[in-house]
């Protein structure tokens, strides 16, 4: 099977799609949630455990790997897959989002972005060409174009300028490509301004990208604005290309966005929240550090099949968390990742069975969200476990 | 098989023994190294990974579990085995060593030790009776008597007084026992004074303990003194009872002490050193944080069969360590534990084959130690990997 995206079917009741992303490191069933391995590791989780979780693709980060250990080290260690012991697909972000997040540290011009390393203050330059070259050296299966991502609250002229620069840089990314062993995705910018979003999409779809991402969302705007932007933009995205919503990742975000036709997601939320003691369940989040879990011998979720829920109680997890034990990060991350991966496994099965609309509604309701207006809390079913 | 210790055979050339410790949570092949799970977890390692490593017994700590989460919580969560998801044997230290390590925090009298928690300064009292009661609540398979452990440099009168108190407390531990679902070990004190050691051993062997531990070693005295004490005391220990050398755990310590007839060991060394980047190999330790490992695509030890060495390079491990990634603690701990567990597996196989003397010599030599005088470096074979 040659690399690329394949739509297997479209939902009748929503705009959700079942698909497959074919890569040189295996096929990824979509819709899919991609765990984040910023520094060439999903924090606290071994590749063997990722396999057990059923992970088919994970995300890593050009900005971080460029600074440490450096692409020359990754190359010497056989590329990113070999280095981190991961034989399935890898998507790498371009570094655009990260360098634009370094406030006061960036000098931006048409050539690229000059920034100071968050590690040691050393000065560096990232350009579209350099980002693609680094990602090719890493050996990613999905490479992201280098984009200009403005802050969530930026005024329209700034958003427009960033969107226009993103289009010019996108062209340079396409031109910088040296091989076809990977898929190259363009990143649609334009904030929550629908005219700008449509203009950005038009610019990018004029270029031969293998997929299209929505960037610049969930960066400070309201959730209603995020979702209405997704709802408005996805219908105009190419139907035969993968659609990737970047950095978005609550269970509600995933359910809502899959229904709008998004295929791919990534977010640090499950692992970062895990390390802070915030655990995801079908019935709402729970904060395992709360005193009430002290002697609770039940698992986080009795219906959950993850290693953590099959073997450990809330009381033990609370103890590990309070004692700052490393094992807590591992067990909590395994659970949260399993929850989101399983939510997407269920979504794919529901799409295959033609029951996705009710799957979406049921899971939003259980999480205490009104399926007809997911920005509102459900009136009749307060979340049973929510407490954070 | 009823619980207890069984000697399977004695080495002809050394005083090493092959044995089995039978517990309600399985049989432990000896000589054995026990990983330390101070706070009811071996730091950074899941029970599934401990099983993969072949661990048959691990150690946990009465002092730490008493303070956090507290024995009542462990009890509510089904006992220590159930709580931590570990179905094999557990040995618990009595808390004696820990409370005597809290300098300036202890008030010691014949009744017990009053101390301030290292967590919050709250005042607590541990007595022989209380230590046994806590360990029975935890549900340990091997319970240690509550002893008085003097500092390594204590003057002889202080060592003598501690040794005599240890004997009186040992009697109280025996009397405090309420059931026979576990084995109760006495702890021989007396520092490096052989007369005191022999007196302590005589006191304790007069009591019906199921095994005997050597405490108060590796607490500041020279390694030569540690080993000569072990060499002098072990021949007078009961042959039909397990012998446990507490808190001792370099590869050299294990090889030398097994030859003197020690059956059981525990030490935080493999996991603590792992977290600090110091990795054990047959040819000496290496510090993975050194620059020279930056682009080294070889495993820590090409001959090692552990998960880490089968999947990851020195260069990647150095990266994880420099980036302070949680996964580093896990992968490094898995390797170091595997090394010590495998060293003991090899020792048992050599004992079964009647080749332990040469196994001991070969492994000491490879570690750069003179087998005829392990306190000296081998003259002919400088350690190949030693660099720390």
Task: Explain what this protein looks like in three dimensions.
- 2 copies of one chain form a homodimer.
- Chain A is α/β, with parallel strands linked by helices and 388 residues long.
- Chain A folds into 2 domains: 4-267, Queuine tRNA-ribosyltransferase-like (TIM Barrel, Alpha-Beta Barrel), CATH 3.20.20.105; 274-366, no CATH class.
- The first copy, chain A, has helices at residues 47-53, 62-67, 71-76, 79-84, 96-101, 128-138, 156-176, 194-205, 223-233, 251-259, 269-275, 307-311, 314-322, 326-353, 356-366; strands spanning 4-10, 17-23, 26-30, 32-34, 57-61, 89-93, 107-108, 113-116, 123-126, 142-144, 183-188, 211-214, 242-245, 264-266, 278-279, 286-287.
- In chain A, α10 (251-259) links the parallel β13 and β14.
- Chain A is globular, with a radius of gyration of 20 Å.
- Chains A and B meet through α3, α13 and α14 of A and α3, α13 and α14 of B.
Features:
homodimer; 388 residues; alpha/beta; TIM Barrel
How would you summarize this macromolecular structure in one to three sentences?
By secondary structure, the first copy, chain A, is of the alpha/beta class. Chain A is built from 15 helices and 16 strands.
